Amino acid sequence: MSENALATILATGRRVETHRGFSRIEIDAAAWQAIAAQLGNGRATLSALWGDTGAVHMAVQDESMANLAVVSLACPEDRFPSVGQFHPPAIRLERTIRDLFGLIPENAPDTRAWLDYGRWDVCHPLGKSPGPASASPYEFLAAEGESIHQIAVGPVHAGIIEPGHFRFNVNGEAVVRLEARLGYTHKGVEGLMRGSDIGRGAKLAGRASGDSTVAHAIAFARAVEAALQVKVPARAHWLRALMAELERLANHIGDIGAICNDASFSLIQAHCAILRERVLRAADMCFGHRLMRDCVEPGGVANDISAEGVAQLRALLAELRHRFPNLVRIYDNTASLQDRTVGTGILRAALAAQFGAGGFIGRASGRNFDARRNFPYPPYDALRFDVPIRQDGDVNARVWVRIQEVEQSMSLLEQILSGVPSGPLHTEFSAGGGEGVSVVEGFRGDVLISVRLNDDGSIARCHMRDPSWFQWPLLEAAIEGNIVADFPLCNKSFNCSYSGHDL
C-alpha cells in the first residue's frame, strides 16, 4: 500500500484512540475492498486477518514494510467482502474465521471448512450465535492428467511429530500438486483466552508453539504493555532479547542438523544435536527452564541472570565459535549433500513476497524483512546485526540463511552480555481496559499478537498469528515438480509449526 493510500484510509476511517502499538482504523466495506485490491496488486502485504464478535480485522503492511495498520470492519449481517478473492494468502484465514465466528466471506474462492472437522459440540463456537454441530465430507483439490495418482500421508506419521495430512497428486515420482490439511492440533486457545486474566493469558501465549515460547511470550507482553501504556525496565528488555536469541540459536542449529539428516547425512545432525543440547542446558541454567517458558511476563521478566549464568553463556559462545564453523565447512564441501539441497524445493521470490513470508523462508527467497529492524523494538534498536538475504530460494538457501543467522545471534548475544544494563526486572501496573498489537521476530519469522482488554483487566479478545500461517501454503508450491522422496527434505527446510498454526 502506498503512503497516500494509507493516508486516505486514516483520513476516511475512524481511528480507535484506545488502540496502541500500531494504529487501528474502523472502515467501511468499500475501503475494505479497496485494501484487498491493493493487496492483490502487490502494493501492500497482508500481515494478519482475524475474526471477532460481529467484526473482522486486518493488519496490513505498507509498501515499504516500515509501517503497519490494523483496519476493522463491522459485520452486522455476519458477512464481509472476501479478501481472498483478490489475494490468495487470505483464503485459509477466511476459512478459519468462518469456522470459529460464523462470519461469511462473500465471493470467497474456497468455502471448505478449515478447523471444524465435525467433532465440535457446536459450530461457530466463538461467534454471536453458535449453532448445532455439523459435518460435511472434505474434498481435496483435484489434479487432472494422464497417469496421475494420489498418495495420502498422515495425519499420523512415522516419527514423533505433530499431525498433518498431506495429499500428493503425482505423475510417477514427480509431484503435480500437494495439498496440506491441518487443524488437527486445534486447542481452542483463542476461546481459552476469553475472560482470562493477563497472567493466564501470558501462559497460554507461551504455550502456543513450544519451540517459539519466548517469541510468543514477548509478543503477548508487548501487546499488553502497549494497551496499558506500561513502561518496561531497560534490563528486562535486554534479558528478553537474550532469551530470544538463545531460542533462535537452539532452533536454527537443530534445524540445520535435521535437514542434513533428511538428506541422509547424519554426521552433521549428531553434532548439531549436541550443540543444541548445550544451548538448551545453558538456557535452563540461566533462566530455570530449557525452553525459557514463563520467563517473560507483561511488565518485564520473571528471572534475572546471575554472574554464573553470564559465565555459562560466554563459555557456550566460545564452544559454538570453535565447533560450528567446522560443521559449516563439512556441509559446504560434501558434494552428495549439496546434490540433495541445491536446486531442491525452490520458492520463487514473487510468491514469497505475495504471501509476506517471514523468517528464513522469506529471506532465502529475497524478501528483506525482519521485525527487529523494520519495526524496531528495544533493545534491537540499540544493537548491531545484519539480516542475511539470498535469492536462490531452495533448500540450500534456507540452510545458509540459518547458518548466517546463527552467526548473527552469537554476535547479538555477545553484545547483550556486554551491554545489559542494571536495574529492576519488572514494572508493576494496574490492569484496565485498552487495546494493543505487537510484532516480534521469532526464529520462524514475525509473530503478531493483538489484545483487547476489558475494563477489569480481563482479556476480551486475543489473536495470535504465527508466521506459519503464511508459510505452509508456500511449501505446497515449493514441492511441485520435485520428487516425492524430496518432500521430507523440503518440509524440514520450511519447518512450519502445526501447533502455532492450529490455534
Structure summary, number of beta strands: 18
The profile of the biggest β sheet is: 5 strands, mixed
* Number of contiguous helices: 16
Mean of all residue-level pLDDT scores? 95
- List the strand order in the largest sheet: 1-3-6-5-4
Q: Output the structural class.
A: alpha+beta
Identify the overall geometry: globular
Percent of residues in helices comes to 40-55%
Low-confidence parts: none
Distance between the termini: 29 Å
Beta fraction of the residues? 15-25%
As a whole number of angstroms, the C-alpha radius of gyration is: 22 Å
SSE blueprint and pairings:
Blueprint: H1 3-12, E1 14-15, E2 19-20, E3 23-26, H2 29-40, E4 45-52, E5 55-61, E6 68-74, E7 79-81, H3 91-101, E8 104-106, E9 122-123, E10 131-132, E11 148-153, E12 165-171, E13 174-181, H4 189-193, H5 198-206, H6 213-228, H7 234-262, H8 266-287, E14 296-297, E15 300-301, H9 307-332, H10 335-341, H11 349-354, H12 359-363, H13 371-374, H14 395-419, E16 434-441, E17 446-453, E18 459-465, H15 472-479, H16 487-494
Parallel strand pairs: 2-16, 3-6, 7-8
Antiparallel strand pairs: 1-3, 4-5, 5-6, 9-10, 11-12, 12-13, 14-15, 16-17, 17-18
Helix pairs in contact: 5-6, 6-7, 7-8, 7-14, 7-16, 8-9, 9-14, 15-16
